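Pasting two entries for a bug report.
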Amino acid sequence: MRTRFSVVVAGVGFLLATAPAWAHHAFSAEFDIAKPLKLQGTLTKWEMINPHSWFHIDVKNPDGTVVPWLIEGGSPNQLIRLGVTKNTLTIGTEFIIEGYQSRDGTNKAVGRNFVLADGRSLFLGGSAPGSTAGNNPSK
């Protein structure tokens, strides 16, 4: 009886320990390397949460309509190591995001880097090809 209880406890512990791995995805599971994009927009919100950061931007179309986009970046720790902190971008900052669109064609993308108005280019880390994370897009 005691052995059976130990096995059950160990099994539950294993499942809890691997839950974050299930939630995390590889680049090719959600984004399409054949859909590179470059968006010019204004930062409306920035979430630094694990396992990814999320940049909410408004992109103005040529006809004047504004379209919200959600851009995935690396983890907060990765961004900080790359020099991207909450002081780097403030709400209302305009910049250009280079990355890859989601497979489902929605207004969601993974960012590779962003270019600020002064010309500085900063990496977003994460799973995007060309990021400093060194992840393989074919995963």
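Entry 2 (this is the one that rendered wrong in the viewer):
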Amino acid sequence: MTDTVADLIIRIKNAYMAKHKTVVMPASKLRENIVKILVEGGYVSSYAREAQQPQDVLNIDLRYINGKPAVVDVKRVSKPGRRIYRSADQLPQVLGGYGTAVVSTSQGVMSDKEARQKKIGGEILFQVW
């Protein structure tokens, strides 16, 4: 697997489309930090990291609002073949502020709003709304 971020967001999107309550995937620090941002943004309800052999797994509980998925769509911005970097003042506003862009910065993975507050830019991983 070369693109773990794309794998994470597509597994979540596919689970929503199939109306699953949870999704299970291999854990990593990057995936766990991204899922924390999705929990804070209200796109998933919760997650738990479980120790298993040979690799830990993430159990993600999906969130539905009146029977509809909390995630409408996801767009991968920076890809392995083309990385997209932006400064803090050039970070995109997803749907006029209703969506969230996940940014990998020198201080860790964070949402676009948090990166603007800290005035740091970085690689735009994906947008979710």
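Dev reply: Rendering is fixed now. As a check, the viewer should reflect this: Residues 43 and 70 are 5 Å apart (CA to CA).
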